[in-house]
Design brief:
This protein has 2 domains: 2-215, Rossmann fold (3-Layer(aba) Sandwich); 221-317, Magnesium chelatase subunit I, C-Terminal domain (Helicase, Ruva Protein, domain 3, Orthogonal Bundle), CATH 1.10.8. Helices cover 44% and strands 15% of the residues. The chain contains 13 helices and 11 strands.
């Protein structure tokens, strides 16, 4: 069984590497953003990309979605968007006098939620049930969403005019939040050179069944008891910190383990190491923390607190009886 999963992981790593290469044909920027999106995909999680306008957030998510070879729908969030515009609604057919469901864009494998914080909280919350339960309820009727179901959302910083902060309950449903800063000078020069030239189209690398198979492989990655204890210790540190009002929840601890398993697959390993936990912790934990009022608007405070947790919480390998 061990040899089987090693061979499966090596094959998975090669296919995921091809996804990365195809995305990088279109997207010019830090490749770590692509890696965290792959982590979320394998862990059956959702991604929130945050950054100022004009740094190719939408270009990145569109290129990534194309490589998955699944059904894709895009929603441009605006202040007048209604929940039914996302989930769908029943409409009356004048011909026969019956109601039929007009499915919204959420009935897709990949939902691109562009500028999600441009819509008010009521519309943003239309995604809550879908992101957590993989289902929607319309007029009391429950509908299953396609599998896999993956939300790629972008958001601009909340201090820009005309934006609304996401509710904490919804932020907690995103497995990772990826902060995208300005590109390096070298990357920006490459952007200028390529402007006006037809961008290459990324090739389809995976299919829906392929994604499900890769997610199954990631779920079977081995985790030692010490790693479980390390993940819980990191979450506990955030709960007891004097600068934190609300620390990482048990859902955050679960997300940390799922993301670490995915990172192990990307590294070609059938087991999780402490380095996997440390690599994914900033993206998994920081956006879930609610800090004291004086730090609420400090965009770097959450990241610094997670860095403090990683520095002060040590990984201890227990001595097992022979």
């Amino acid at each position: 069984m061990q040899a089987l999963i090693v061979s499966e992981i090596e094959a998975a790593r090669e296919r995921l590497g091809e996804v990365r290469r195809q995305v990088n044909r279109v997207y010019i920027g830090d490749s770590s953003s692509v890696d965290m999106m792959l982590v979320a995909l394998l862990a059956r999680g959702h991604v929130l990309l945050e950054g100022v306008p004009g740094i190719a957030k939408t270009t990145l998510v569109k290129a990534f979605a194309v490589t998955l070879g699944s059904s894709i729908r895009r929603v441009q969030f605006t202040p007048d968007l209604l929940p039914a515009d996302i989930t769908g609604t029943y409409v009356l057919s004048p011909k026969d006098g019956t109601f039929s469901l007009r499915a919204g864009p959420i009935f897709a494998n990949v939902l691109l939620a562009d500028e999600i914080n441009r819509a008010p909280a009521k519309t943003q919350s239309a995604l809550l049930e879908a992101m957590q339960e993989r289902q929607v309820t319309i007029e009391g009727d429950r509908f299953e969403l396609p599998d896999p179901f993956f939300v790629l959302a972008t958001q601009n910083p909340i201090d820009l005019e005309g934006t609304y902060p996401l509710p904490e309950a919804q932020i907690d449903r995103f497995l990772v939040r990826v902060h995208m800063g300005y590109p390096s000078e070298r990357d920006e020069v490459m952007m200028l050179r390529s402007h006006g030239i037809a961008a290459p189209e990324p090739f389809v690398v995976l299919s829906g069944p392929d994604v499900l198979q890769l997610q199954s492989i990631a779920a079977r990655v081995h985790v030692e008891d010490d790693i479980y204890e390390y993940a819980v210790a990191l979450s506990a540190f955030t709960r007891n910190h004097p600068k934190v009002i609300l620390g990482s929840s048990p859902r955050a601890s679960l997300g940390l383990l799922r993301a670490a398993k995915s990172q192990a697959v990307l590294q070609g390993r059938p087991f999780v190491t402490p380095e996997d936990i440390r690599f994914v912790a900033p993206s998994v934990l920081s956006h879930r923390l609610i800090l004291v009022p004086e730090l609420e608007n400090d965009s770097r405070a959450r990241g610094l607190l997670v860095e403090e947790a990683l520095a002060k919480v040590s990984y201890r390998r227990a001595v097992r009886p022979v």
